[in-house]
Write a structure and sequence with these properties.
single chain; alpha+beta; Umud Fragment, subunit A; 7-stranded antiparallel beta sheet; 4-stranded antiparallel beta sheet; elongated; disordered N terminus
Length: 188
Amino acid sequence: MGGCGKVMPMKTLNSLNSIEAWLWCMARLDAMHAHLVRYGFAYIALLFGYWAFSMKYEMNINVSNSLGGTVYLVEKRTLPSRDDYAAFYYPSDFIYPKNARFLKRVVGVPGDTVEARNHQFFVNGNPVGKALPVTSDGRPIEENDFKGLIPSGHYYVQGDHPKSLDSRYKVVGLVSDQMIIGRGYRLF
């Protein structure tokens, strides 16, 4: 660890009683007092700015190859429109844990028509991808059997990669607006 002093070993910290631990913490704070007095307002402003930013936005890192970008800004509590990116909670526990954060492109909005022919999916007659019988690691996967008008409050999402885990499969299906975290913007 560099620059911020030594860290008290856990064995020593566990052997302290509460008064000794309090005195140890006060000594550490006293050592930082001059620094905090000089730059305290800057820290407060920085923390307030971070808090204000995090109330409205969050940063997401794409770790899969389903989308081309790496860093995305997500505007929280904002529903996406067609061709926007949508961050949402993954509804299943197949491959990824339930409620993992996913980011996909919205290709179908309420009122659009979803069709499937020979495992090929279409939204409003436009091809949006072919469902494969197995995942990249060879697990069997069931394609989505939804066909018809996308109901109010639901979205058809799609990754850019042909093997993306998206609305073509039952484990994702149509994404409800209650699962949406917010609208995404690709930064890098």
